């Protein structure tokens, strides 16, 4: 439980605009503040980290990294992923779990690709926040709070929320579209 509280507090702290917080307590020169106010690098880092996480999990469950049981392979195929999905969603009627697993996989792939490209970034980040929050809640209901906290699923949700609130997305397709 303490890990959950600490994880949540860290997420909340980092969603505050650090530049404003630093201005109030730490004397810094304007050059340093310009670095903090530049959201380009954090935006790309968040997009890349979130996209990689989603696309990695989709690739694993589709068998792109090898068969189940090989090193660095979690599921290795759809069948093993479905066993996990049934465990995580054991509180739901068993008939809808395969449909929800397909929807989650399509959602993860779509959000991952959109974030990677920087296309519809604000919408993709918002969907990522909701998707990961749904995963976290399902994991907590079925296996206790330590499961989503241990896998930092709440952190992914908070990072997605932070990305959705950034003022712009440089080095993205969105920035090219918005220039015109």
Description:
By secondary structure, this protein is mainly alpha-helical. It is built from 10 helices and no strands. It has helices at residues 2-15, 18-25, 30-37, 40-61, 78-88, 97-117, 121-143, 146-150, 153-165, 173-179. Helix 1 (2-15) runs parallel beside helix 9 (153-165). The termini are far apart.
DSSP strand content: under 5%
N- to C-terminal separation? 49 Å
Shape: globular
Structural class: mainly alpha
Round the Cα radius of gyration to an integer and report it: 18 Å
Number of strands: 0
Largest sheet at a glance? none
The oligomeric state of the chains shown is single chain
Model regions low in confidence, pLDDT < 50 over at least 5 residues: 8-23
- Helix content bin: over 70%
Number of helices: 10
The figure for the number of domains is: 1
List the secondary-structure elements in sequence, H or E.
HHHHHHHHHH
* Mean pLDDT metric: 86
Give a nutshell description of this structure.
The chain is built from 10 helices and no strands. It is mainly α.
Index terms:
180 residues; mainly alpha; globular; membrane; DoxX family membrane protein
Q: How is this fold's topology laid out?
A:
Blueprint: H1 2-15, H2 18-25, H3 30-37, H4 40-61, H5 78-88, H6 97-117, H7 121-143, H8 146-150, H9 153-165, H10 173-179
